[in-house]
Amino acid sequence: MQNKRVLVIEDDIDAANVLEAYLRREGYHVAVVGNGLIGLNTALSWKPDLIL
After folding, report:
1. Local confidence pLDDT in tens for the 52 residues of the chain
2. What's the predicted TM-score (pTM) here?
3. In the chain, what are the domain boundaries?
4. C-alpha to C-alpha distance for 13 and 27, rounded to whole angstroms
5. Quick one: which of 3, 20, 38, 39 has the fewest CB in 10 Å?
């Protein structure tokens, strides 16, 4: 999954950490944010391939 970007929007820090670790291990570039407003701004600027 080379160069694929995943944006994780999750307010539960433990769940976010698990998702981030798994996705990074699978080769994704991951950004994690804690709420929808920051997620929207990040999505507009970072242009992820997938938003969770």
Report:
1. 578 999 999 999 999 999 999 999 999 999 999 999 999 999 999 999 999 9
2. 0.93
3. 5-51
4. 21
5. 3
